[in-house]
Amino acid sequence: MPSVSELRRMIYESQSSDWKFIDAPPEYIYKPEPDLRLEEKDYGEDVRLHDENSFYEPWLDNFHHEHDVFQRRFWLYWGSSRIDYVDVLWIDEGRCELPLPIRTPSESPPEGPEDYEEIYISSFDAAIGRAMSGGDFDHYLNVGNIEIRDENEV
Q1: What is the pLDDT of residue 115?
Q2: Where are the beta strands (DSSP E) in 49-146?
Q3: Among 149, 145, 70, residue whose Cα is nearest residue 112
Q4: What was the pLDDT predicted at 49?
Q5: Cα–Cα distances in Å, from 56 out to 13, 69, 77?
Q6: What count of Cα atoms within 13 Å lies in the side-chain half-sphere of residue 55?
Q7: Cα separation of 126 and 138, whole Å?
């Protein structure tokens, strides 16, 4: 089995075309190494039907359907071994799967998208988002004014 850092490196260096989406249960399989996959936790419950999975913060006002955002958890697997997880926001009716960004509000509480000093994701999380969202992911980063920061974590 590859080390966790090797698995993270595979994801970091992957292209969105390297991933195959399977609908039920929702999972993303890395085609060059099919033992590597992202699988949704709690599949079987439609997260969109549960208020506790609904997610809203003012920075989401930049997106279409900003009040129709849901938080989902995906587990990273190698074979049957659970390695890690990523919390993902289901945005714009599922057109974007955005790993939950780090948010630093400049106002407390923030009232709109302009009330944040910074909103960012790591370069590793950007690779996850591209794998899950395909070619439109960078468009959603631009719309949301979300930066990518290299956290040297890969």
Answers
A1: 86
A2: 70-78, 81-91, 96-99, 102-105, 116-122
A3: 145
A4: 47
A5: 31, 7, 28
A6: 20
A7: 9
CA of 113: how far to CAs of 37, 38, 99, 149, 150, in Å? 33, 30, 18, 19, 23
Query: Letter for the amino acid at 42?
Result: D
Query: What six digits make up the tokens of 80?
Result: 């049957």
CB atoms within 10 A of CB 115: 14
Read off φ and ψ for residue 18, nearest 5 degrees: -80, -5
Taking the model in full, what pTM does it have? Answer: 0.85
- Cβ neighbours of residue 7 closer than 8 Å, sequence gap 6 or more: 36, 76, 78, 83
Amino acid letter, residue 76: L
Q: What is the pLDDT of residues 66-121, one digit of tens each?
A: 678 888 899 999 999 999 999 999 998 888 999 999 998 887 888 888 888 889 99
The per-residue pLDDT for range 129-146, each reduced to its tens digit, is 999 998 899 999 999 999
Residue 105: both structure tokens together: 């509000």
Reading the block at residue 84, the tokens are 């890690």
Residue ranges covered by each domain of the chain: 4-149
Where b means 16+ CB within 10 Å and e means fewer, 24-57 reads eebbbbbeeeeebbbbbeeeeeebeeeeebebeb
